[in-house]
Write a structure and sequence with these properties.
The structure is a homodimer of 174-residue chains.
Chain A: E1 2-10, E2 14-16, H1 23-26, H2 36-41, E3 45-49, H3 50-59, H4 62-65, E4 70-74, E5 84-87, H5 91-96, E6 103-108, H6 110-118, E7 124-130, E8 132-133, E9 138-139, E10 148-158, E11 161-168
Parallel strand pairs in A: 1-6, 1-7, 3-4, 3-6, 4-5
Antiparallel strand pairs in A: 2-9, 7-11, 10-11
Chain lengths: 174, 174
């Protein structure tokens, strides 16, 4: 499998404010201008935390928002939403069990990204940076200490978002 | 006066590792490819913390590294370096006392940037993001909670650095 992060953060690195809200994001503009559809069309499986799933539920029918992927939610509670399945345990172990040909998108939840970074299982990251500082919130990166190097594949500007695209660094560059 | 931040951070927002070292930066490439000379030529005054000054001392003669600016170091200890002057107190108060026509560069020290952001005294930020995660270190942004919005003026790629250029947001966009 190949594993990707794709999502928005503030300039100070927060996925959401400390109440898990995205007001700063909605005030910055829409994602329609970005390469999202192209990215999503290449994904087979999504991974998210329970709080991210709840946020998605708040936006409308989750099955309509992620219609083409198998969607896995890390939660200990039962889920009754078509197209979404509750999973639990170690994200790295789960990801290692996914077939080679599948593309996996880590939608949200730093508790999922961190163990995958630590296990060197992240192949690419596309990060849209909003021109906003929050000062407090839910950070994107919470992995433990250790130098992890990626390769900058490109930068783009979409409205007020700076999009940075990273690929796995070649072994020689590590 | 107009106040600017210009400098490098890791993708997870650190100015330096937790021992205040910049190994990750030196391993990424040099700053020679960037618009640094153009930026520096427009500055009149630099502001830095004591630790940043020490790092600069480690690189060579500080007066040669920042020859064209008046360089102010926040420290309670005496300094004996031509072109550098020890200052102390509240960075916001100091900056408010600088003449209107002067351009001020916050070189380093999140303890200087944070109070200036909180006082709405930062006019621009040019941030080079290195494709590196450290997990721990000295964060660039340590200002208190509160939504501060900038305007994304442009993005560039210099080698493996993504450079994001921000300007003060117009009042209507706040």
């Amino acid at each position: 499998m190949s594993v990707f992060f794709y999502g928005c953060v503030t300039l100070d690195g927060y996925l959401a404010d400390k109440r898990h809200r995205l007001d700063w994001l909605h005030q910055t503009g829409t994602a329609e201008e970005t390469g999202y559809q192209d990215f999503y069309s290449r994904m087979d499986i999504t991974l998210m935390g329970r709080r991210t799933f709840r946020e998605i539920e708040g936006l409308g029918d989750p099955a309509e928002i992620y219609p083409a992927t198998q969607n896995l939610v890390f939660t200990h509670r039962p889920l009754s939403c078509p197209g979404f399945r509750a999973v639990c345990g170690d994200p790295a172990e789960l990801v290692r069990g996914i077939p080679r040909e599948k593309n996996v998108w880590i939608i949200g939840g730093n508790t999922i990204l961190a163990p995958l970074l630590e296990a060197d299982l992240v192949d690419g990251m596309t990060i849209q940076i909003a021109p906003v500082l929050l000062g407090e919130g839910i950070p994107l990166f919470t992995q433990g200490e250790g130098c992890i190097r990626f390769r900058l594949a490109g930068v783009k500007q979409y409205g007020q978002f700076a999009e940075l695209c990273y690929e796995r660094a070649a072994p020689a560059a590590l």
